[in-house]
Amino acid sequence: MSRYFYYLVVLYMLANVVALVPRILIQDRLNGTVMALVIAIVLTMFYFYIFTNSMLKFPGKGQPEIVLTYTPKWFAFTYLFFVAILYFCSAWFILVSFIDITNIFINPEMPSFLIGAVFLALVSFGALMKTEKTLYALEIVLLISLPLIIAIFFKAYFNQLLSWDAIKVVFIHSFEKPSISTIGAASYSMIGFYFISIYNRVLKPKVNKLKLIPFLLLGILATVNIFTSFLIPIGFNGVDGSENYIYPWFSTADSIRMEFGFIERVLFIFLLLYIGISISTATITCHVGVETLKSILPKKKWKGIAMVPSMILLVFSVFTISSPYLFSQVHIFDFSKFYFSLLLLVGAISCSVLLYAVRRSKSK
Amino acid sequence: MFQKKKSDVERVKPLIESNFKSTQDVNFQTLNTGKEKAEIIYISTIVDQSQIHDLFYRPFFEYANLEKFESYVQSLPYYKSFVDEQETIKEMLHGTVVLLIQDEVHLVGLRHQENTAVLDASVETTIIGPQKALSEDINTNINLIRHRYHEKSLKIENAPNIGSKSNIEVAVVYDAEKVDAKVVEEVQKKLDKANRPIVQSAGELHRALTNKKKRLFPTMLVTERPDRIAYNLSQGKIIIMIEGLPFVLIAPTVFFDFMSSMEDFYQPYWVSKFLLSLRYLGLGISLFLPSAYVGVTSYNPEVLRIQLAFSIAGSRVPVPYPSYLEVLFMLLMMEMLTEASIRLPKTIGSTATTVGGLILGQAATEAGLVSNIMIIIVAAVAISNFIIPINEMSFAMRVMKYILLALTTFTGLIGLVIGTIALIYYLVSLDSVGHPYLKLFYGESKQQS
């Protein structure tokens, strides 16, 4: 597999911290979250395997082309439209949350309108770039921020204030019935593989099947990652205390201190790094969304420039910038729970659609 | 009506006469042995006069036979066959001797270039490594390159002359085995399309070659070093040479080319890696430090350690303005100094830096216009900006710094990070003759594809 594919998967593992996932997990921490995590990992890795392998059967092709060729037209249109909306929802969660985070932690005096406008201008510019160029940009951002983020994770694990007892309490409640939204939220951290649906056009992997060892390594990485993003806030803030935060990870980062660093408070390093991660995630997700939606919309041109992608992004930007005024945090939180649960179902649908396409392509 | 078709001479001669009659340095001369006659026309100032005598006058009288002399002229090494009148005029302007023998027109290129001296490297200097740069003559430059790159696949092609008025010779040089044929085609297409009345420098040609009219970052590299040219040829890049200029254009280039100096190849491995990281550090300082100062002092002083935050606030006590004005004021003064020291004659240069650097800096803090820490920052920015080895890139980054400063002024540290990511996105979105401009692990992917 091309190294860019791993970047896409790793990107979402990092981004889940922003998109309310830790909060949903922590809310259910005494109701079998550990069980939920295990189920989510197994289930998502299953989807991962089927989806990626099916896509690899069509080298150089994206999901829209495949679905439009091998399924009836009415179905392809509904399916692609629905999937594109889901992609945009994912970008929306990340952006809305990060606008909120910026407002809380960095610039409390700045109107969220301005922050949103700055974010979305950049995301729209990035999403309109050529497909392979979004990958180059992602690589640069990731390679700058990844080492520092990993260092912060390690610093958190080896911190003396981390209470392992609190973490043990969570494990006592492992075998209780988990809720669907918790499983969905946990699976969200691993959905990076869905992006191969568009990036398959440019990745050009030499293999037509996912190799077992990298796949298992990704599974282990996903497990470590999701447990880290769930347990560290609990370890720092206590079983009861961790519930009080909307963005548990950022509050946790604020309790880590670097005695000898140039910047003493880890929060700021963490925040600045996560701007990069969130913007990259939103860019990639929007790009995939635009490319998917573009395939079923008419190709309108104005002075030789394709207008449809810009129009889609304009609508998305206006909606995202106005969302902090339209919805309260509670709405967004409830909606995200619904969205994450929906992801589990959509994963099943996507996999079956692709499996069907693979079978059709073989019979032809 | 039957009209006798005019011979070449009858068409060319009046045209040359009407065009050049009033010009003082054009030489019309008739060679006459009594029986045989030939005419010789040239612009004496751009023709190698010492050779004219040996090549034409003496043989003419020695042969004393027009047929023999004609076949002698045709076997001269610089002989060019006649195409049409306009072409003849053009050739004359590039130092060609026109011979009118009987009814035939013969052209012999005898160009003489005054400034063929090879200059010292002055823009990209290295400590150890070749000390000479290029000359201002295109043939001398090709000679220099041939002597550094002995490879039979080295191709030198003449591109159409550039500029409707300046009419400057352009040559495209590449290694046919290494180069990507598509890129050569693209460059030639662009050279055909480039039309500007006057093109005299590599930068201008670069501007004429890019589709985007307004750009900030160079997408082709301008260099004066023959060793860099030879290295780039071996990497499969194309060199575009321009007559009368000790610089050449290299395409396609990637961002990292602009951060590398030829010195990197001449130093031990770890030393060159150290120098390279120093350069990126310098780039970071010169880009981010002014904006970070504004972001930290005006928006988020809590980012820094408490002692540092206090000492910055303490040194800002007498300053009546918000931090962005202070930064802008000092940066502008620094830019003025830099610009002034380029324009000033070398003898006065040191005065300007003393007056500007020492007195202005000292006085500005004492007058309470800027803080002490600001002076340190401006000095660091000014010095580190010049660490970038390629001049064009360092100028582009100089401008970029203000864009980041503006963003940070309006939105705080968020703006700085957003601006940085925007810069990465922008650089990634650029193309250099069809190749991605910024991409990590460039060499590795080249091998794969």
Which secondary structure elements does this structure contain, and how are they paired or packed?
The complex is a heterodimer of chains A (364) and B (449).
Chain A: H1 3-15, H2 21-27, H3 33-56, H4 63-70, H5 73-106, H6 112-127, H7 131-157, H8 164-172, H9 180-188, H10 196-203, H11 212-237, H12 248-253, H13 266-294, E1 301-302, E2 305-306, H14 308-326, H15 329-363
Antiparallel strand pairs in A: 1-2
Chain B: H1 8-20, E1 26-32, E2 37-43, H2 49-63, H3 66-74, E3 79-80, H4 85-93, E4 96-101, E5 104-109, H5 138-148, E6 154-162, E7 168-175, H6 181-193, H7 202-209, E8 221-223, H8 226-234, E9 238-242, E10 248-251, H9 263-266, H10 269-299, H11 306-315, H12 323-343, H13 346-366, H14 372-385, H15 391-411, H16 413-429, E11 431-432, E12 435-436, H17 442-448
Antiparallel strand pairs in B: 1-2, 2-4, 3-5, 4-5, 6-7, 7-9, 8-10, 9-10, 11-12
Helix pairs in contact in B: 2-3, 5-8, 10-12, 10-14, 10-15, 10-16, 12-13, 12-14, 15-16
What does this structure look like?
The complex is a heterodimer of chains A (364) and B (449). By secondary structure, chain A is mainly alpha-helical. Chain A has a single domain (3-363), classed as Amino acid/polyamine transporter I (Up-down Bundle). Chain A is built from 15 helices and two strands. Chain A has helices at residues 3-15, 21-27, 33-56, 63-70, 73-106, 112-127, 131-157, 164-172, 180-188, 196-203, 212-237, 248-253, 266-294, 308-326, 329-363, and strands at residues 301-302, 305-306. Chain A has a two-stranded antiparallel ribbon with strand order 1-2. In chain A, helix 5 crosses helix 14 (308-326) and helix 8 packs across helix 11 (212-237). Chain A starts with a helix and ends with a helix. The radius of gyration of chain B is 29 Å and the shape is elongated. Chain B folds into three domains: 8-109, no CATH class; 138-253, no CATH class; 267-442, no CATH class. By secondary structure, chain B is an alpha+beta fold. In chain B, strands 1-2-4-5-3 form a five-stranded antiparallel sheet, sandwiched between helices. In chain B, a hairpin with a 5-residue loop joins strand 9 and strand 10. The model of chain B is unreliable at 445-449 (pLDDT under 50).
